[in-house]
Specification:
oxidoreductase; NAD(P)-bd_dom_sf; EC 1.1.1.37; binds 1,4-dihydronicotinamide adenine dinucleotide; three-stranded antiparallel sheet; Malate_DH_type2; Lactate/malate_DH_C; 19% strand
């Protein structure tokens, strides 16, 4: 008997990220080669025609795992019974904007979608937020879905995590598979803190292998934290295929588990670990298994890390205060 199909909602499905994400999901990259998927795609009314074209292309791929595709513009219909909701749809920033500038424009979307998920999603739903500002959008959705446990919400910092791995690979030549225990702390913004003090490169402490704290502070951290802007400057549009790939990686590891000798970065509701204010959606090192996650505990935090972890938390507190004032949470 084939496994029960998983219902996956994707919002902003006609957008740039959607155009990569949907094909990867339907091809089995998220749930593996044995699990059929049913896609339930949300778009705003004016983008539905374009989405119809994307669905025609999905049909034309004849993906064996793709059981059905439904599209619509009403989240109360599209989210019906979904087991996984990937909230991508939101306005992207353009050159010169910070992601926080999108708070007001995109905040309202996540209020309505949080309410709809609360009303109609499956009991086991997991919700991953990619649309920016991702952490605070996840906070808004979570706050508007009081019946869904808080640990079912996360925001995407896996792209930052992958960017950090790639930069370390570029510096050392060690394959990314042999680089472990990198952490992105905090906000998916320029204040994020990519931390290598616990990382291992080829089984050795990363700081010893790199042996250049000046490079860590003045090249590695800003390169990872500002990579989104660099891509906008180069491409004239924000990252899309890499964002889709990270969205898949994050959901895959959340639902199916991550390696035990490594961890991943995920922005989740803080339980106060590492002194981060309770309830903020903050990126931590987490281990995942079977649809649940737990924050890696007891890492020693030096003064260099502490200052950066607190600065990115302070930005998230400001964002939370701003959306509270706007009445979104
Ligand atoms: N967390 C991360 O690492 C990353 C996040 N992003 C963010 O992802 C979001 C999407 O990016 P792109 O696909 O490039 O943008 P895009 O503009 O190409 O697509 C966004 C889509 O969302 C749709 N949309 C707008 N409001 C909607 C609503 N209420 N319900 C459903 N769909 C709605 C639009 O019609 C559009 O088709 C942006 O906020 C972007 O900043 C992008 C890259 C990385
Ligand atoms: O920078 C942006 O606006 C898009 C994004 O989140 C990223 O590439 O990390």
């Amino acid at each position: 008997m084939s496994p029960t199909p998983v219902k996956i909602a994707v919002t902003g499905a006609a957008g740039q990220i959607g155009y990569s994400l949907l094909f990867r999901i339907a091809g089995g990259d998220l749930l593996g080669p044995d699990t059929p998927v049913q896609l339930q795609l949300l778009e705003i009314e004016p983008a539905l025609k374009s989405l119809e074209g994307v669905v025609m292309e999905l049909d034309d791929c004849a993906f064996p795992l793709l059981e059905s595709v439904e599209i619509g513009s009403d989240p109360n219909v599209v989210f019906e019974g979904v087991n996984l909701a990937l909230l991508v749809g939101a306005r992207p920033r353009s050159a010169g904007m910070e992601r926080g500038d999108l708070l007001e424009a995109n905040g309202a979307i996540f209020t309505a979608q949080g309410k709809a998920l609360n009303a109609v999603a499956a009991d086991d739903v997991r919700i991953g937020v990619t649309g920016n500002p991702a952490n605070t959008n996840a906070l808004i959705a979570m706050s508007n879905a009081p019946d869904i446990p808080r640990d079912r919400f996360s925001a995407l910092t896996r792209l930052d995590h992958n960017r950090a791995l790639s930069q370390l690979h570029g510096r050392t030549g060690v394959p990314v598979a042999d680089i472990r225990k990198v952490t992105i702390w905090g906000n998916h913004s320029a204040t994020q803190y990519p931390d290598i003090f616990h990382a291992e490169i080829d089984g050795r402490p990363a700081v010893d292998v790199i042996d250049d704290l000046e490079w860590v502070e003045n090249t590695f951290i800003p390169t990872v934290a500002k990579r989104g802007s660099a891509i906008i400057d180069a491409r004239g549009a924000s990252s899309a295929a890499s964002a889709a790939s990270a969205t898949i990686d994050a959901a895959h590891d959340w639902l199916l588990g991550s390696q035990t000798d490594d961890w991943v970065s995920m922005a989740v509701a803080s339980d106060g670990s590492y002194g981060i204010p309770e309830g903020l959606i903050y990126s931590f090192p987490v281990r995942t298994s079977d649809g649940s996650w737990s924050i890696v505990q007891d890492l020693e935090i030096n003064d260099f890390s502490r200052a950066r972890m607190d600065a990115t938390a302070a930005e998230l507190v400001e964002e939370r205060d701003a959306v509270t004032k706007l009445g979104l949470i």
